[in-house]
Amino acid sequence: MLSTPSRRQLLAAALTASLPLAANAQPAPARLPRLVTINGAITEVVYLLGAEAQLVGTDTTSLYPSAAQKTPKVGYLRQLSAEGVLSLKPDAIIATSDAGPPVVLDQLRSAGVQVELVKSDYTWNDVTSKVQAVGRAARREAAARDLQARLDAEWAQVGRQVAGVTRTKPRVLFILSHGASAQVAGQGTAAEAMIRFAGGVNALSGFQGYRPMTAEAMASAAPDIILSTDQGIEAIGGVDKLWQRPELALTPAFRRKALVVQDALLLLGFGPRLPQAVRELHSRFYA
After folding, report:
1. Torsion angle defined by CA atoms of residues 247, 186, 171 and 230, in that order, rounded to the nearest 10 degrees
2. What are the boundaries of the signal sequence (predicted)?
3. Is residue 98 part of a domain?
4. What percent of the chain has pLDDT over 90?
5. The CATH number of the domain where 228 resides is what?
6. For a FRET experiment, which of 15, 98, 180, 208 has its CA 20 to 30 Å from that of 166?
7. How many independent structural domains does the chain possess?
8. Around Cβ 209, how many Cβ atoms within 10 Å?
């Protein structure tokens, strides 16, 4: 005859059955923020930090790495719309201070979206600020510190390489081309900073920003090297079209056909590839 379990036995069995569940119970992991990046260099940082799974949208300047080209696009960084960005349900937006219009950024903040803006001054601090901003917004601060340490070491190495050259610094003129129109870079521009970092001298001074390229300006500037972007050369129809411009005919650069080109984002983006960009320019300036 089978005995009936006592009340104490039943309670003990129930407690034993519940132990594995209690031991294995884990708190639900916190959801990582959904990110929209409004700047190609900032997007690069997201990938370097391994946060690309959090990336739900980017602007049209976000072209590197190639995977960034497949992300949903929210438009050009200065012509954003709140509706387009909010449709991606981001938790945080990371952008440079030239993103806008400002009213759109205010609308995004009012909708509860965290907006991180990085101010550009065309120094190494630009890179540091971008890495820190992405680290905060993506909740990857430790990875951001590790990345920054690696980039700082690369930057220091490039700086030593440039400083070690004792030859006369070449005069370099940066041309920004948009089809038939062309402008040259003066002071306070990303191009001027890159020329200086790579061991050159900006051939033009005495004005801020960009101004149209004229024959008079070219004659007085006397650049040894013309610097431009791959995209700019393509916009004017190729290298031969550049040298056909009459403004360049009397320059030392024209006589030597001395032209250095680099991808626009690499050259002017001030992102994590800045040491690479400067190293390449330096080697071309002193080839």
Report:
1. -70
2. 1-25
3. yes
4. 82
5. 3.40.50.1980
6. 208
7. 2
8. 11
Domain shared by 103 and 216, yes or no: no
Give pLDDT, residue 19: 47
Query: In whole angstroms, what is the distance from residue 207 CA to residue 190 CA?
Result: 14
Span 201-259, pLDDT tens digits: 999 988 999 999 888 888 889 999 999 999 999 999 999 999 999 999 989 999 999 99
Model pTM?
A: 0.87
- Asked if residue 175 and residue 152 are part of one domain, the reply reads no
From residue 49, give the alpha-carbon distance in Å to each of 128, 195, 239: 13, 29, 37
pLDDT for res 6:
56
In this structure, which amino acid lies at residue 208?
Answer: Q
Kindly state whether residues 117 and 63 are assigned to the same domain.
yes
Residue 141 · residue 175 · CB < 8 Å? no
Q: Cβ(220)–Cβ(192) under 8 Å?
A: no
Torsion sign, CA atoms 104, 106, 107, 109: positive
- CA geometry: angle 75, 266, 202, nearest 5 deg: 115
Domain region containing 265: 166-285
Q: Rounded distance, CA 34 to CA 54, Å?
A: 5
150 and 179 together in one domain? no
Q: Which of 145, 161, 177 is at the close of a domain? A: 161
